[in-house]
Amino acid sequence: MELTVQDTNGILRLPWVHPDRTSRGLGWEQLYVSTQSEQPYQASFGGAPSHLVILHLNGPVTVRRGHLGLTSSRTVPPGGLFVHPAGKELTVELGGALDTVHAYLTDELLSAACDDEPVELAEELGTVDPLVEQLMLTLDGVMRDWEPSARTYVDHLGYALAAQLARQHSVGGRPVAPAVHGGRGGLTERQFRRVREMVEERLGESLPLREMAAVTGLSVSQFGRQFKARTGLSPHQYLIQRRVDAAGRLLRGTSMPIAEVAQRCGFSHQEHLTRVLRAHLGTTPAAMRVSCSA
User: Does the CA dihedral 109-1-131-53 come out positive or negative?
Assistant: First the structure.
């Protein structure tokens, strides 16, 4: 089930918070993202079922926070973070106009980054983490230029964000297993064959990362590490590679209309296929077809 604004603590439902774009309707099950302009306010909120990370896009601006009172205050620069764990009440005062990106994560997503071990996020105000900042900006970019075929990529970004939060922004810090390189520790031949078969069978569909992991019997975090150890690629990179290869075969070997090739190979439309081929192969569908017939 899609995570929605109803699963958040209520900041985004304030009348003086104006979202520019959100992940509403995109089918993101464990992550809700919203980008907006906020006006100065002071308000209190009950505990929410989702964890909250706010990225300040501009500033500096003074923010005060606490539970029964405003006990912490800090002038937060652009790139600063506000982290608040699920289930805890919050009183917050925003001292000036501010543009932000909010990311709300389920507890399931956060714990999955630690192989299903529980994680308690710290309450933070004004901390800086370049990786969290980049991941949230990337999620905002994906949301702005949404393509349904990017579903696996969003899953990858969500788990990467959860892993960094668990590693650097939890109470006491939590160890997250590092990526494994080389030939050891990767998927077995049988596991990889199952993933490969699923990808080929569902090439034209949105393919959630958890479904790819499920056929291997691994958690999502274990699957991501072991898949990359086996192939040298993330699951999303592998999926794109297979889609590009399939599109190339159809363009070279058939007269199927380019728009139909795009749809059959998991691209949202012909323009999407063109962008990906240009990025990966330095060519276009039409040029590939012409060079083949020449």
Answer: negative
Specify the amino acid at residue 175: P
Q: DSSP assignment, residue 143?
A: H
d(CA 91, CA 44): 4
pLDDT value for 292: 65
Measured distance CA(187)–CA(154) in Å, rounded: 22
- Among candidates 47, 63, 44, which has minimal Cα distance to 55? 63
Packed helices 235-253 and 270-281: angle between N→C axes, nearest 10 degrees: 100
Minimum mean pLDDT range among 66-80, 169-183, 218-232:
169-183
Do you know the residue count of the chain? 294
Structure tokens at 229: 């150890």
| Contact residues for 139 (Cβ-Cβ < 8 A; gap 6+) | 31, 33, 101, 103, 154, 157, 158, 161
Angle of CA points 9, 11, 12, to nearest 5°: 105
What is the rounded distance in angstroms from the CA atom of residue 88 to the CA atom of residue 52? 11
Could you tell me the strand order of the sheet in which 50-56 lies?
Answer: 17-22, 31-38, 98-106, 50-56, 80-84, 124-128
8-state DSSP, 170: B
- Model's pTM, two decimal places? 0.84
DSSP for 251-277 reads HHH----HHHHHHHTT-SSHHHHHHHH
29-81 residue pLDDT tens: 999 999 999 999 999 999 999 999 999 999 999 999 998 678 899 999 999 99
